[in-house]
Amino acid sequence: MVDEASSSSLTSASEESSEAEAKNPAPDDFIALLTYSPSPYDDFRRSMQEMVDARVEHNGKVDWEFLEELLFCYLDLNNKKSYRYILRAFVDLIVLLRENSGTVPAIRPSLGGRGWRKQLN
Length: 121
Description:
Low-confidence stretches: 1-27
Shape: globular
Order of helices and strands: EEEHEHHEH
Helix content: 40-55%
Number of strands: 5
Strand order of the largest sheet: 1-3-2
Largest sheet: 3 strands, antiparallel
Structural class: alpha+beta
Radius of gyration: 15 Å
Distance between the termini: 26 Å
């Protein structure tokens, strides 16, 4: 069992962290930061919200296929010990987006959205 106060996490964020231990270039124009987090849920939630805000601002729509790819990216970049924080943050973000879906248009994902992930395994 991992205590929230002692969990490490990888997040993608636009601001630099003084706690960053390493920077590793990653595909698709983002940087993965290895950080210590006393509150991994909050950090994952904030990072995901920033990514979604940038995407919605750019396109004007919520792209559900992008959100699925974003989730897989967080899961692929992080240790299994962080999955509960990632999934909780992602679900909370989706709930908020669904509640606000009347004000923000949504793009529905294609049925084959997760096919690439199955090919990797």
